[in-house]
Amino acid sequence: MQPSVRGVLLDDDERLVLFRRTVPGRPLYWSVPGGHVEPGDASLEHTLRRELLEELGAVVSAVTPLTTLSYPYKGAVKTQHVYGCRLVSMDPALRHGPEWDDPTRGVYEVERLRLDPSEIASRHLVPEALGDYLAGHIASLPRLIRLAKR
């Protein structure tokens, strides 16, 4: 199974940027941006930057490896490399890709959450392993994600 990356993205106000996902036939859930490694990607960080630009129109700094998650998924093992990063800019007009071209993929609404464990606990975060990681580390994210000079 193809590995993927996820971006735990903090804005200037120390809020977590994530998606509220409404998908036909599925219960409401939240996720952090990211996606699969593609053949042309030079590295995992390249994949992350590409996915954040596609999904959010975002440019980031301070890309910091946080954890690698592996969990059962559709009869195989899914591996996700989770990075923390700081939002430099976000322009929704730059979003592109299958998420925006295919209406059957549902709605991707950007939300920003305070770094409070109750914010994570009150939402169904997918994948569940990432929700568990964030619930245990949400308050320490600013310390874990180094501040980069801009």
From TrEMBL:
Keyword Glycoprotein in record: no
Keywords from the named record: Hydrolase
Domain of life: Bacteria
Pfam families hit by this protein: NUDIX
Domain Nudix hydrolase residue range list: 1-138
Chain ranges passing through the membrane: none
KW Repressor (keyword) present: no
Similarity section: Belongs to the Nudix hydrolase family.
Protein name: Nudix hydrolase domain-containing protein
Organism: Nonomuraea recticatena
